[in-house]
Amino acid sequence: MAPMTRAFIAEIEAYVHQHDIPLLTFTKGQRKDDVAAEYLKHFTGAEGLLFVGKAQENVPVFRTEKRHNPQTGRPYAWIVRSSAPVNHYYCYGVDRDFGPFFLKFCSYFPYTAKLCFNGHEYAKRQLAQAGIAFDALDNGFLSCAEPARLQALCDGLSHEKIDAFARKWLARLPQPFTPEDRAAGYGYQLSILQAEFSLTQVLDRPVTGRIFFEQVIRENLDLGRPDQVKLIFGRRISTRTPGRFQTRVITEGVTPSLYVNYRQSRIKQYHKEGRALRTETTVNNPNDFGLPKRLSGLPALRAVGFATNRRLLDVQRISHDCALGEAAFQQVNQPVVVGAQRASALRFADPRVQALLSVLVLFRLLPAGFSNAELRAHLAPLLGLSPSDLTPGGLTYHLRRLRLHGLIERLPHRHRYRVTAQGLRIALFFTRTYTRVLRPGLSHVQPDFVPDDSSLGKRFHQLETAIDQWIGHAALAA
C-alpha cells in the first residue's frame, strides 16, 4: 500500500500547486471551522475549493505483522487491526447547490473518506437561486417569504441528491483510487456517519420563550429515565439496553441546553440566539433504530429523527405550557374589545379588581346567579364602604368589564349573572396569589419592617450582603 499512499499524496500536492490552492497544516487545538470561515469571507465565486488542510489524527488502520508457521517455522505476513497517527487531508470548498462543505481523506489504507455538509446551507442556496426572500438564523431560518416552498425544498434533499453531490467532488478532487482501480470496482460507497434532524420554532415573544424553556427544564429533569426515553425515541427499553439513561443540563454562558441520550444517539434542546426554541436529534448510528447505515436508509432515518423531535415536544407540552398561562394573564390585564364593545383592563394589583375577584369566588356557589344589588352588598365591605356608597351605574360598569373579559356571563332573559369556569379559575388564582404570596412575602423583605424571626427576610439580607460585597470587590479590582 505504500506506493499507493505516496502516489495519492503527490497527486494532492500537484493538484493544489496547479490550481493555486493554499495547502495548510493545522496546528494542535486549532479549530478547522474557524479557519474555513476566514477563507469563506473572501470567497466570491459560485463554487470552488477554498484550501486543503493537513492534520495528523489517530485512526483505526490495517497493518501487517510477521508470523511463523508452527510446522515449518517459515515467516509470513498477516493483516491485523491496529491504530496509528495518520495524515488526513481536508478539502474545504463551496458547492453551487450545497454551499460550504469539506471532504476529508485518510492517506493510509483503507483510505476512508468523510463528507460533511449542512442541510440548512443547501436550503439557503436553493431559496437564493429561486429568488425567494428569507432571513437566516445561524444554521436555521428566522423567516421566509414562502415557507411552504422552503419546507418542500428541505423535504426534497434526498439521498440521491447527496450521492450525486459526493460523486461530483470525488471526480474533481484527487483520491487514492486511480481510474483503473475504479474501473475494476474499487471506490467509495456512502454511509451515514452522523445525521442531525432539527426543528426550529421561532418565537414571537422571545423573552416569554426563554422563561418557558427554563421552566420546561425544571419540570422535565426526569426525561432521561428509561420510561421517558422509550416514549421520546419510540424504542423498547430493557435492562440489557446499553447506554446511560440520564438528563443533562449544560449551561454555556447564560444559555442552558437539555440533553437526553439513547444508545449512541441523543436529542438536544436549547434557546437559539434568544429568538427560537431549537430541538435537534443527532443519530450517530442508524443501527440504534434498526436501520441500515447505507445512505439509501436516509428517508427512514429522517422519519425517525423528526418524529423524535415531535415526541419530545409533546411530552413537554403535556407537563407544562406557560405560553397559555401568559396569554390568559395578559387577556385579563389588558383592555379587551368584543364586537363594538370595549372594556378596560382588570389590573392584577388594583384593590378594586381584587375585591371583585374575591366576590366572584363566593358567587360561583349560587345556583341562580347574582344580581347588581347582590354584587353591591358583598363588594362594599371589601372596599371599606357601605352599600349606599356604590351606585348602580358604577356596578353596571364593573359587570360589563367582567362579562367582556369572559369571567361572568348573563343569564338569558334575566338581569342576573353567572360566574364562568374560566372566571372561577382566574379569580381563585389571582386572589390567592395576591393574598397568600405577594402581600405576606413583601412584608417579610421590606428593610424597615422585617420581623426578627423571618426566614425569608434573613435570606434576602444575606443576598443583599453578598451582592454588596461582590460589587465592592469589583470596584476595588477596577
SSE map:
Elements (H helix, E strand, L loop, with lengths): L1 H17 L4 E3 L6 H10 L6 E21 L6 E21 L3 E8 L6 E5 L1 H12 L3 E3 L4 E4 L2 H9 L3 H14 L6 H5 L11 E8 L3 H14 L6 H8 L13 E6 L2 E8 L2 E8 L3 E8 L14 H22 L2 H12 L2 E3 L2 E3 L7 H13 L8 H11 L9 H13 L3 E3 L6 E3 L1 H25 L9 H23 L1
Helix pairs in contact: 11-14, 12-13
Key features?
TATA-Binding Protein, Arc Repressor Mutant, subunit A, about 475 residues, 3 domains, single chain, about 25% strand, alpha+beta
Please, could you describe this protein's structure?
A five-stranded mixed sheet has the order 1-2-3-4-5. Strands 8-12-11-10-9 form a five-stranded antiparallel sheet. The mean pLDDT is 86. Strand 3 (75-95) and strand 4 form a beta hairpin. 44% of the residues lie in helices and 24% in strands. It is built from 15 helices and 16 strands.
In short:
By secondary structure, the chain is an alpha+beta fold.
Number of separate strands: 16
Strand order of the largest sheet: 1-2-3-4-5
Shape: elongated
How many domains?
3
